[in-house]
Each structure stands twice: as C-alpha cells, then as structure tokens.
Amino acid sequence: MAAELSRRQWLALAAGAGSALSLPAGWAQSAQRPVQRLITVGGAVTEVVYALGAQSLLVATDTTSLYPEAANRTPKVGYLRQLSAEGLLSLRPDAIVGAAEAGPAIVLEQVRAAGVRVELIAADHSFAEVLRKVQTVGRITGREGQAQTLATQLKAQWAQVQSTVAQAQRKPKALFILSHSGAPLVAGRGTAAHALLSLAGAQNVVQQFEGYRPLTAEAMAAAAPDVLVNSTQGIEALGGVDAFWRRPELALTPAFARKALVMMEASQLLGFGPRLPEAVSQLHSQMLKATA
C-alpha cells in the first residue's frame, strides 16, 4: 500500500529519480476517492476546514494556521512559502489544499508527482475569494452541503456589512503598516491591506506604488493619514503601542495628534477567510471612531 512506501522511496518517486519504482495499484485514481488525510497551508483555508466541521481529516497545517485555537495544536509543516516535499509526504496526505502563495512550486510539483492531490485557491483579495475557499474545501472534504450553508450565511453577513459601509458619511485617510519582522513597510496598491482598507470604506493614502515598501518620513508627512492600521502582532513586534508612537516619522502625521491607531489580529485582518465580514465591519467602525 501507499502508506507502506519508505521515505526514501517517496522522495525518489517525487523527484522523478526512481523510475523503477511502480505506484501501488489504484494510486493514480486516489484523487477521486474521498479525502481521509488532509494538509492545509494557509490560515484562511484551515479556518474553513474547522467551519465546515472537517477538522478530523487534518493531519497537519502550516504555521500561519492560528485560528481557531485548536489549529495551533495540529502538527505543523512549516511556513506556507517554504514547504518541503519530504515533510509533506511523510504525513501520507491524500490531499493538500492551500493559499495561492503556497510553495515553492517545485515542491508542490514533486508532491503531485507522488500522487497527492494538490489544489491552490486563487487570490484576488475579494469576498469572492472567501467563497472560493469555502467551495473548494467543501468539495474536497465531502462537505458540499455544509459549504453551501456557510456560503449563504457569509453572503448575508457581507451584504449587511457593505450596506453599512456604503452609508458612512466619511472615508478616513488610512495607512496600513506591516511590521511583523524587520523594518516597517507600508501597503500600496495590489495588496491584501489595500483591498481591506477599500472594503472598509477608507482611502489608502499610498497610491503611488504596488506592494509593500518602506516609506520615508517626508513621504509619510505628505501622505498625511488620519488613522494608522496595523496588526496586533505587528505592534507587539515593534515593542508595544507606546514604542510604536515613539517612532519619529509618525509624529509628522495627523494620526499622531489623536493617536489614531486601529489594531486587529493578523489572520483575521488579512486572511480573507470566513471572518472577512466581521473584520471589515470592525475595521470600518474602529477607523470612524478613531478619526471622529
């Protein structure tokens, strides 16, 4: 049986070096069988598994899978962008489902070559992305009915949140700072943070570039954000709220005068998972309150 292949055989097969090895009978059709052993890479994907009640299928998750609390107690396969074929295949998964940024690509190709079903979910930083995650996980785990129910609930929540955002009289000028490690960066166009600010009814003051970049004190002053947004993990990495406000470049912003800072847990804030309606609602109300 496939489960009896040694680790060395797995890796030889995955790398294409073991041409003399033959797959166990029926292994090529394993992708069509109900999944019994699942690995998820990407916190939002893992959240969906728990939301659908399919967590008994999980044999491991990645290190970004922090919610719900039970996900912290699952075996970990490392960071989703730095996976290894040996680590994944040693867990004998039937399927690996992940966020679009999971990789490296060569590792996932090796895993596919070993007969494991691998599905990555396209990201466009939208509510539609959330629904794709729900649909994909529901299909792979055999929880299509539960997935449909969850999608219906999320659509209703989303409609309510979007109605509330649309009725707001102000669009705060916001700046998202990413500071989980290294020097703080600010979020430009094309990022999850940019999309989140827009969905929550704010104007991202950084429009001149895409991605995340350092922002000089002069540019910070010119951007003139009314409110700053960061994750709770990012603030902790900078030494806490007091240390954050001691950064000299922040003193040049309108946000500094009123200490207008909104913090939320990173996986909820940027995960684009089933908590997105709640995240947008909280961010919207907190930004309005901080800039009142």
UniProtKB/TrEMBL annotation:
InterPro entries assigned to the protein according to its UniProt record, in alphabetical order: ABC_Transporter_SBP (IPR050902), ABC_transptr_periplasmic_BD (IPR002491), TAT_signal (IPR006311)
Pfam families named in the record: Peripla_BP_2
Gene3D superfamilies: Nitrogenase molybdenum iron protein domain (3.40.50.1980)
Domain Fe/B12 periplasmic-binding, first and last residues per copy: 37-292
Protein's name in the database: ABC transporter substrate-binding protein
Origin superkingdom: Bacteria
